[in-house]
Structure prediction request, 180 residues.
Amino acid sequence: MSKYMIMSKERLAKSIRNIPDFPIPGIQFKDVTTLFKEPELLQELSDILYEMYKDKGITKVVGIESRGFIMGPVLATRLGAGFVPVRKPGKLPAETVEISYDKEYGKDTIQIHKDAISENDVVLLHDDLLATGGTMKAACELVGKFNPKDVYVNFIIELKDLNGRAAFNPSTKIDSVLEL
Ligand code: AMP
Prediction:
């Protein structure tokens, strides 16, 4: 990684606001809106993401509701790829495929349109943050049902202490911009 890239990542990391005890006591919420609102930082993040994936032949960026809907379409546009939303139940208007997964308390379900991905696609799944990995692991399984050519997984932030990577099959190609 170039010196310029390390410095720019430090700037991005510093711009993320930490909100203690949100949405529940004990959670340190990483607020990316303080990065997104700065034009230069937003451009830098977009540049870094583009550099990470420009040679991978990505044809679809799949964003996870809701913070994956911010940089997901930005990245899709830069890569010349399409954008596909993965949403909570009842939000997508056409026929969907869904998957349920265990959360700390109870279950959750996510859905994707049945015609969103084809076997010829190279998919990049994107969300803002990797915590326990539960949501993204389920999204990977959901996308896997379409049998795409290849799958990449991206986060802006990875919370290292939570070791969310352990939730995934070791062959999963996971990359994050910032490790906090
Ligand atoms: P997980 O399934 O545990 O990896 O949780 C990931 C999802 O929850 C992502 O969509 C994040 O936006 C959100 N999330 C979890 N923990 C945090 C946190 N500490 N700060 C901000 N967002 C979080």
